[in-house]
Amino acid sequence: MVELDDKDLYVRVLRQEKSALEQLYIRYEKLIYSFSYRMMQDTGLAEEVTQEVFIKLWRGLGQYDESKGKFSSWLLTMTRNTAIDLLRKRKRENVVELEDRDALQSPEESVEDLVEWKEKGEDIRAAVNTLKEDQQVIINLFYFKGYTQQKISDLCNIPLGTVKGRLRLALKHIRTYLEKERGEYHDKAKQL
To answer: Diameter of the chain by CA atoms?
Structure first.
């Protein structure tokens, strides 16, 4: 059997020939994985990048031009870009999670405000206790145990979108409960 060069295999991949993709995978998987690992410093993320590169190759995303360099160099550039995209995506997700987590925290930072915030802990616990059980679980894992939304999704075996939805709904209920409690407190204070 004649071994095809990278360009021939690439052309065959564009024609959706699985055997060509398999040969490129055998030829370049270790290189792409090790390059990804050096960038990500995480085996799971490096595996994800490697998989994504071959998916992009199969889908014909990006065009290899032989006149611009070797196929392996083009693959490593695709790997680099895929790793950077994944890191940016993770960073955005972490920022969103931090913003969600901070939604329950007081924006004030004076000592008096922090003491007052801690005193409201009982109100928050009472508000959490009014939630449906599935929302309580999400709030407990996210706010009190510090799990990420993805970790909760994996742990509870539910889609990430469901975790985010339950978290948003739970926060809405907690805010409504706390606003109602504050309103009743202010009404009582006015009566005194």
So the answer is: 94
